Amino acid sequence: MKSRFFYHAFGVGLGGRITRPCCEIIDAQATTALPTVGGISSSRIDAYRFREILSVRSARAYAVGSEDSDGAYNTSVTVTVEGLDILGVITAEWMTPRRTSQHVEGADEPVISSIGSEFRDLRIGGELVDVKVQDRDQFFTERTAKQFNEHAQAANAGPEPAARRGPPRFLVGNKGATLCSLLKPESYEIRVPTVGTVFLGEILASGYARRLTMLRVEMGSPVAGRLEFASGEINGYTFP
User: Fold this and answer.
1) Which string of DSSP letters, residue by residue, matches 111-154?
2) Which one-letter DSSP state was computed for residue 37?
3) In whole angstroms, what is the distance from residue 126 CA to residue 41 CA?
């Protein structure tokens, strides 16, 4: 059987569900996915509103997969959400997760980068959120999953300052996946009274795929539910 590369990339502008005071699904908006043979895929929405709970000025997702002349397989996905407003409390002018990967012929796994991912003018209750990236080299330089997981284990094994607040920098699961954030612990998880808990720059990394979600909200009283904004996942693999 001739070896071939299976591309993998998808993006979601927003989606979720509300469980209180009503039970409703928020259909995924601005979604895109690549076929396994690569190519280009894109999607866009404008002036989206769900009741009086959330709105965005625009959301768009773009994915591309192609092969270089030297035989390397390149994949990228970019999702952009502009003019976000959640209950008039959480707002953002712009948020973008950008994931790129390159799988060189003969390599065991790809190198993946998050360069180009950013927040602009993210505010909670009108106050500007100080978004602090925790390790720029690890996230914005091309790294394999093995390198990424080795760094995660080393970081968790190091000294833990008593004054540090928030979750561990990296959570290494028993199935070889690592959960972490682009941001420092104090910027990753933010409790917002009467709204819920906001999670920023969340990454789930495994051997052949990495997902980056720029903003996730576990909503509490009086409106309950789960929301996700600006999320993208990439890579792929050669078979056999």
Assistant:
1) EEE-TT-EEEEEEETTEEP---BS-HHHHHS-B-HHHHHHHHHH
2) T
3) 36
Token digits for 235?
């890579």
What type of residue sits at position 204? L
* Counted domains in the chain: 1
User: Among the residues of the chain, which ranges form H helices?
Assistant: 136-140, 145-157, 185-188
Contacts of 15 (CB under 8 A, 6+ apart): 26, 27, 28, 29, 227, 228
0.85 exceeded by pTM: yes
Both tokens assigned to 204: 């789930």
Residues facing 11 on adjacent strands: 32, 232
- End-to-end alpha carbon distance in the chain: 8
Tell me the residue range of the domain where 226 lies.
4-239
**Which tens digit of pLDDT belongs to each residue from 195-220?**
999 999 998 887 767 899 999 999 99
